[in-house]
Amino acid sequence: MEHKTNHQMSKLDWDDLRFFLAVCRKQTVRAAADSLKVSVSTVSRRIENLERALAAKVFERKPKGLELSPIGESLRIRADQIESQVLGIEREVLGKDLELEGEIKVSVPAPILQELLMDDVVEFGRRYPKISLSVDTSYSFANLERREADIVVRFSATPGDTLVGRRLPDFADAIYATPSYIESHTFEGDFPTAKWIGWGDAEDRPVWVRESQFPRCGTIWSIVDPILQTRAAEAGLGFAVLPCMLGDRRPGLRRVVPEVIQNKTGWILTHPDLRTTARVRVFANFLYEAIRDKKDLVTGASYSDRA
Q: Domain HTH lysR-type, which positions (predicted)?
């Protein structure tokens, strides 16, 4: 029996384990496929290859979806360990790379890249034509330990003790609407007519509204993307909490109240193993300086009342 198991294990493919871990973490084949940027059929085929190599099922098909089998549970622990070792080797090799060429994986929220940094990133490409950027603009936190990214722009009061990086200027939010919306609506009193543009809330007056300066105003619609929220406010749908880097640059918007209402702590982070990699270090410094040069915009200090 022991000989048979060893023989079977020798046929395991690390790539199959990588697909297996993605399904474990994302919980569905489709979500795993999206995260790996492959088709659903490719993920399914890889799982079948793995089960064939083990001569055992790693997932049990239940009405509610996939569940790990007992063997799958054991395999996940070992696969996590193997992944950590493989990625550690990759980071160690990459960390000794002193050349200004090759790929950098970057994770940055879409509004920051689109509205704040696109011209700077294009300029970086002109200066360093041998460096290729692979950019992820999703709002999920890329995992630096698993090399989902080499550099991330992340908003958190505590970015993690295992990462290294630099703190960015605080990113400020304020409340915006069009001048005509402000003039034609009431924001206070027992029956205000102004409406917040919602952020995917299940109730008309969620906690963030009740704790705001205009707690009696209800919400209208549900838009969870900052850029689309900005466009909706510009179109006169309602009033919105927006990053100052978006709202202050729109000539058709004005702050409902002049003060900044909240600040978010931003960081540029990388894994410690990569801080000596020339291209990672150069791009991280470039990003930091590009954002620092726009400090007045991101902190809301550049705002002038357009009334």
A: 12-69
